[in-house]
């Protein structure tokens, strides 16, 4: 592979990575807590898109429990979206870079 081919390949990698990262906003995951009483949906950019709270939970005496459930549901959704984003980016760049043992590109994704 000559230098011009290598530079062309890098431009293609950059372009596909940009497209893949933009696609992350369309990947969503929902985490729940309290047997589904609280649900939080996030996207691949790790933005919280929505929070659903069962109406029965909205009582002044249950405030601390509700806060804990929101945190738990958000953390669950964030943990679940990580797997989806890695797979999305892996598929988007598949075949562009050689398989080099020990080369970890997770920091780029």
TrEMBL record:
Matches recorded under SUPFAM superfamilies: YbaB-like
Pfam families from the UniProt entry: YbaB_DNA_bd
Presence of keyword Cytoplasm: yes
Main location: cytoplasm
Subcellular location: Cytoplasm, Nucleoid
Assembly mode: Homodimer.
Similarity annotation: Belongs to the YbaB/EbfC family.
Record function comment: Binds to DNA and alters its conformation. May be involved in regulation of gene expression, nucleoid organization and DNA protection.
HAMAP family the record matches: DNA_YbaB_EbfC
Name of the protein this chain belongs to: Nucleoid-associated protein FH603_4653
């Amino acid at each position: 592979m000559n230098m011009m081919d290598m530079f062309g390949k890098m431009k293609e990698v950059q372009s596909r990575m940009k497209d893949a990262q933009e696609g992350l906003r369309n990947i969503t995951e929902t985490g729940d807590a309290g047997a589904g009483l609280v649900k939080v949906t996030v996207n691949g950019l790790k933005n919280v898109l929505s929070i659903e709270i069962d109406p029965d939970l909205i009582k002044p005496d249950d405030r601390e429990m509700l806060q804990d459930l929101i945190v738990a549901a958000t953390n669950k959704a964030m943990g679940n979206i990580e797997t989806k984003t890695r797979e999305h980016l892996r598929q988007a760049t598949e075949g562009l870079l050689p398989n080099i043992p020990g080369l970890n590109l997770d920091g780029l994704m």
